[in-house]
Write a structure and sequence with these properties.
The protein is of the alpha+beta class. Helix content is 31%, strand content 35%.
Length: 127
Amino acid sequence: MKKLCVFLTLVLVLSISSCRLENTNTFNLNADEIKEIVGTSQMSDPVITKTFTDDETIGEITNVVNSLNLTNTNNVGELKGWQYYFVVRYSNGEEITLAFSENNILIDGVVFNTSKYNPSSFGSCFY
């Protein structure tokens, strides 16, 4: 009985600690599997929407996204006041949506905080 209690306690501790690790992480977009990225910038007047299919621009965008430290806020919803919005379309038909605003990123409807996001990171893609 004592071994069972120790085992269950160990499983509980590992479960709790792994939840904490999942709350802070990075997001990984694989540029090799992406067919195109449709991006919209509200950082200009008028708003600019472009479709990126070239490997260089797709690589730039994925490098910025993959370099961000993300903390899951456990909030689901919209992100008001976004600066950049991307729809990532993979070759297999899957899509991921990303909206960037100040210190928040909305990934497929889930809000994440980040301190490393710089709005000028995507500027060269649109101008």
